[in-house]
Amino acid sequence: PILYSYFRSSCSWRVRIALALKGISYDLVPVNLIKDGGQQFSAEFKALNPMQQVPALKIDGITLSQSLAIINYLEETHPNPRLLPQDPKKRAQVRMIADHIASGIQPLQNLSVLKQMGEKKMEWAQNCITSGFQALEQILQHTAGRYSVGDEVSMADLCLVPQVANAERFKVDMGPYPTITRINKALLELEAFKISHPSRQPDTPAELRA
User: Fold this and answer.
1) Which residues contact 75 (CB under 8 A, 6 or more apart)?
2) Which domain range does residue 164 map to?
3) CA-CA distance, 161 to 150, in Å (whole number)?
4) Contacts of residue 27, Cβ cutoff 8 Å, sequence gap at least 6
5) Number of structural domains, the chain?
6) 150 pairs with which residues across the strands?
7) Locate the GST C-terminal domain: which residues (predicted)?
8) Is residue 210 part of a domain?
9) What global pTM score does this model have?
C-alpha cells in the first residue's frame, strides 16, 4: 500500500492509526498542503484524488480517498483487531461519534475553510471546535468506558485523538471536557497512536519532531 499523507492532517492521522493498529506496512508519500501553493493542487495529485485532499491510499489495485471510507475498507479486509464493535448498538455509537467529528467538526476548521476566514481564522476554529466538543463531551459521558465506546479501541477513537490535537493547536480550553481529555490521554499511551503521531512522520519539520 501507498499512503499519501501530510504530517499535520488529522484525516491522514486517522488512517495512519488504523494501519498501525492492523499491522499493515505501507510506503508513505508526503503531500505538503502549504508548500508550492499546496502540492494537493498539482495535476499529478488531482489525477489520484479529484477532491485534492489527503489522505489517499493505493491498496489492492484501487485508490481510495476519504479517511472513514479507507478505514472501513481496512476493517473489512483486515478484520483484526476490529475497529467496529460486533454489537449493533455500540457499532452505531462508534459511527455516530466518528461522523460527529469527521463531518461536524473537522471540515469546519480545515485548512481550506480557514483560508477564507482571514484574520478571524483562530476565533472561527475555536468556535467550531468548542461547539462540537460541548456535544461530544455529553455523548461520551453515555458511551465511554476506557475509550470512546466501552473498553475497546474503535474508529471513534481514531477520529478523537487527531481532533483533540487540532483543538490544542488552536488553543481551545480543554477544561470543560474532562471525558474527552481522559480518553485522549489513555489513547496516546498506545503504541499505534504514538508511531502515527504528527511529530514522528517522515515529513515532520525538524522543529516539530518528537
Assistant:
1) 18, 82, 83, 84, 155
2) 88-193
3) 16
4) 1, 2, 3
5) 2
6) 144
7) 87-206
8) no
9) 0.96
